[in-house]
Amino acid sequence: MRDDFIATVTDGSPGTAMMAFSRRLDPAQIEAVVDFIIATFIQERRANTRYHIPENGWVDHQRYRDAYPFALGEIPLDTPDDRLTPAQRRGKALFMESCVTCHDRARVEDEGVLWEPRAVSFPRGGYSHRLRGRPDASSGATPFARHDRPPRVAGLTPLERQGEALFQNNCAFCHAADGTGRNWIGSFLEPRPRDLTAPDFIATMTRQRLARVIRDGLPGTTMPAWRQVLDAQEIDALVAYVFRVFFRQAENSEE
Ligand code: HEC
Ligand code: HEC
Fold it and tell me: Within 10 Å of residue 69's Cβ, how many Cβ atoms?
């Protein structure tokens, strides 16, 4: 560690704001400052190097001591409440309220999934935008649930069926399973995802334009460009599905 520190202070760290000190300090001075840093901040962790001190605006920080073990990682944050003493439980609650913004989840036993592909703010457990007509009791009561069901259309060609799977897995998250954009996530996006079943939208759309917008996305909106994700054949399948199911359906409902 000491050698690395000396090298960094001497030569700087390219690409960062850390400059080289070799022209300003001689080697003995560089060694002295590195030894000071190691002793003060790392080995002795002297009281005046602590962060939560009155000079930094933290008067009497000790009053939060119940939360310290969670900030320091001594007690994992996901320890079940029934394994905590009352004081520890208070500390955990305090940590979640006042410390977690900076200290994050200092230590947890179960890291959980790296990327949860569901919106965390959906107002109920077990939400899936692919509920396929089986909403639970509470979700059935939301105005969003009915848009989470893909339209059932008989007699899809293999290409349209492939397009259905691609749409429900990649697009329904924003556009809703029924293409209306009236699902939970869709209602938060600005601009809102296009209602793919709206007659005035359908009137302006050709297969070529649809393929292009899927390929290139719409700059300045959350509509992504899919060209790195889907190949030309998959985009054809999506176009076939959107035309058959969303466009045709709108025609039917107008009749
Ligand atoms: C604004 C950001 C911020 C908040 C809010 C915050 N901390 Fe810290 N805390 C820090 C930083 C920065 C350090 C220094 C980290 C280091 O030295 O590695 C630190 C260090 C600590 C330490 C180590 C000892 C010390 O004083 O340096 C403890 C214990 C601690 N925090 C507890 C808490 C508790 C308990 C809360 C909530 C009541 C809290 N912190 C809220 C930023 C914060
Ligand atoms: C992250 C959210 C999101 C995803 C995922 C998404 N879209 Fe969109 N999409 C949007 C938004 C928002 C708009 C509306 C932009 C606007 O009106 O300016 C849009 C617009 C569109 C339009 C209308 C284009 C136009 O010219 O008006 C089509 C067609 C479309 N999306 C198809 C798809 C397809 C097919 C997929 C899946 C491959 C998909 N979208 C995935 C958010 C999304």
Answer: 21
Question: CA 234 to CA 42: how far, in whole Å?
Answer: 56
DSSP assignment, residue 209?
H
Give residue 115's pLDDT: 64
* pLDDT at residue 135 is higher than 70: no
In this structure, of 1-10, 56-65, 76-85, the range with the lowest mean pLDDT score is 56-65
C-alpha to C-alpha distance for 71 and 223, rounded to whole angstroms: 39
User: Quick one: pLDDT at residue 255?
Assistant: 37
Q: Angle at CA 84, nearest 5°, toward 82 and 89?
A: 100
Cβ 239 under 6 angstroms from ligand 2: no
**How far does the centroid of ligand 2 lie from the alpha carbon of residue 214, in Å?**
7
| Ligand 1 centroid to residue 103 C-alpha, Å | 7
- Fold of the CATH domain 147-254: Cytochrome Bc1 Complex; Chain D, domain 2 (1.10.760)
Locate all alpha helices (DSSP H) within 18-136, ordered by sequence.
Answer: 27-37, 68-71, 86-94, 100-103
Cα–Cα distance measured from residue 128 to residue 192, given in angstroms and rounded to the nearest whole number: 20
Hey, where are the domains in the chain?
1-49, 50-110, 147-254
| Greater model confidence, 61 or 142 | 61
